[in-house]
Design brief:
The protein has 179 residues and is mainly β. Helix content is 13%, strand content 44%. The chain has a domain of 100 residues: Lipocalin (Beta Barrel). It has 1 helix and 9 strands. The protein has a 9-stranded antiparallel beta sheet with strand order 4-3-2-1-9-8-7-6-5, with no helix packed on it. A hairpin with a 6-residue loop joins β8 and β9. The longest helix is centred in the N-terminal third of the chain and has 24 residues. The radius of gyration is 26 Å and the shape is elongated.
């Protein structure tokens, strides 16, 4: 059986020829992207890209440990939230931080309500808005549990409904004016 091997002037046995070919260039770019991604991941772990966060000191004083870094989410926030039934509402949040506690108010369907169980851990926030629904003559308490993260000056939030409805996700931005 005879093997046919195509040989063209472009294909040579010169050293380094692979790196000037399309597959070589793609390989080099992929390697460069992997290295940059690893560098960004390492720098993110130090807190370099987190607003308000500082890397932990390498040698804290023997008398006191460094204070944990918390996301600066205090103030007014707003978001257009589309709920599972298709309605979209402009929801507003007013947060205050005291240590690792998060307090304030949040709207649900445009009605302001107090937050409970609010916590800030690094760039993560959690809080609950307790609610009540009336079905016929029966009143039922339920909760909306919010978990979120401060990302690039905004908040990415997920809402879990204790009644089992589908989770809702939204992005919130700092409000330009008070609600």
């Amino acid at each position: 059986m005879t093997r046919l091997v195509a040989h063209s002037p472009e294909m040579s046995d010169k050293p380094g020829h692979f790196w000037s070919s399309v597959p070589g260039i793609i390989t080099a770019v992929a390697g460069l992207l992997a290295a940059v991604t690893a560098l960004i991941t390492a720098l993110t772990g130090t807190g370099l890209f987190s607003p308000g966060a500082r890397p932990a000191a390498s040698s804290p004083s023997s008398a006191e440990a460094p204070a944990p870094a918390f996301a600066d989410v205090s103030g007014q926030w707003e978001a257009n939230v589309t709920y599972g039934w298709g309605a979209t509402h402009k929801e507003r949040f007013a947060f205050q931080i005291n240590g690792d506690r998060l307090t304030g108010t949040g709207t649900f369907l445009g009605v302001p309500r107090p937050l409970t169980e609010g916590v800030v851990k690094g760039a993560q926030i959690q809080f609950v808005i307790p609610l009540e629904e009336i079905i016929g003559t029966e009143r039922r308490a339920y909760q909306l549990r919010y978990t979120g993260a401060a990302v690039n000056g905004g908040l990415h939030v997920q809402v879990m409904d204790s009644r089992g409805n589908a989770d809702v996700q939204f992005a919130a931005a700092r409000a330009l004016s008070r609600p």
